[in-house]
Amino acid sequence: MSGTRPRLLFVLNDAPFFITHRLPLALAARDAGFEVHVAAPFEAEPVSIMESENLVHHGIPLRRGARAIAGELALIRAIWRVVRRVKPDLMHAVTMKPVVYGGLVARLARVPAVVHAVTGLGYVFLIEGTAARAQRRFVMGLYKFALGHRNAHAVFQNPDDLQLFLDSRLVDPKIVTMIKGCGVDTAAFAVTPEPAGDPVVMFPARILGDKGVHEFVEAARALKPKYPSARFVLVGRTDPDNPTDVGEAGIRAWEGEGIVEWWGFATDMAGALAKAQVVCMPSYREGLPRVLIEAAACGRPIVTADVPGCREIVRDGENGLLVPVRDGAATARAVERLLADPALRKRMGARGREIVEAEFSVGDFVVKSLAAYAAVLPRARWAEAAPA
After folding, report:
1. Residue 229 contacts by C-beta under 8 Å, 6 or more apart in sequence?
2. Is the pLDDT of residue 123 over 80?
3. Do 284 and 307 meet the contact criterion of CB atoms below 8 Å apart?
4. Residue 109 in contact with residue 9, Cβ under 8 Å?
5. Mean pLDDT of 328-335
6. Mean pLDDT of the residues in the chain
7. Does domain 200-359 have CATH number 3.40.50.2000?
8. CATH says 7-183+361-382 is which class?
9. Which of 156, 188, 250, 267 has the most other CB atoms within 10 Å of its CB?
């Protein structure tokens, strides 16, 4: 393709997620010489941001929680059509369905190079039972086929997920890289003093059971009698596509009891975090949650579960407290320890900022991601027709 810009196609499950987690990488790839395309479900605001940066959006009918065969086949066909139209030199698939279905299409359509981002294993790896085990075996078979592309690289965010894939022989160890999360802009997420007034304990995530919202509410219910002025705040949206979604009615019921406040989705996450004394997200399993990196960058102590992804950010006793998974009582004890000790909150917040600056900058994420691109597509190809 001498004389033309190489084409990079992102395939993702969510357009806002692309803006918050992958836009800096896309812009760096564009500036390095790529023509950048993004396949994700249409949402007006994030698509307008893409277009303003000269990125080309392609709508696909992806619903994260959907399992109907007809819908899944329609999604595969849509990705196939995008690939045939764009003819990418490199595909970057992010999250489970894009990796599995995008990887399938990439092999069948002979896309020259693929980078897979395994950003967490999701609901199917949390549920138990005979049917769940059969479903996991099926999904793992799809992963193995997708990751078997002859010129692929696989990026993992935490060692537990990587080890599971290696132990299950789903991926060749020679093609894997560990990149711990997507990083944050440490200038945008700056340390701010604790706000005056009633203490705020914040749950900053989609309102899902798998994110630990029930344990958060259990902790709030236990602590409210002792700390009546404390405010327990949910900052996030519902997600009807997820089987563990609480739904607006459930949230409103908690509000009606006086247990929590729901602030909805925050477009300014740095501003939201600045209003908190403590951040609490006792999730059941993560890839590597960006919001906890953001909280640490803002100098906020964190309570989270001792599970893959979360424990890569929170070092117990240093920048936060780790609690057993699915344990609301332990979550309450950890939150209370921080509510009762402002000096501890300050010390942990400062340590969290140090950890982010050393390990989780967005610049480091971009450099390592571009290196993964170079592993499958030589850098010499990127700049053949790059803008002067």
Report:
1. 198, 199
2. no
3. yes
4. no
5. 98
6. 92
7. yes
8. alpha beta
9. 156
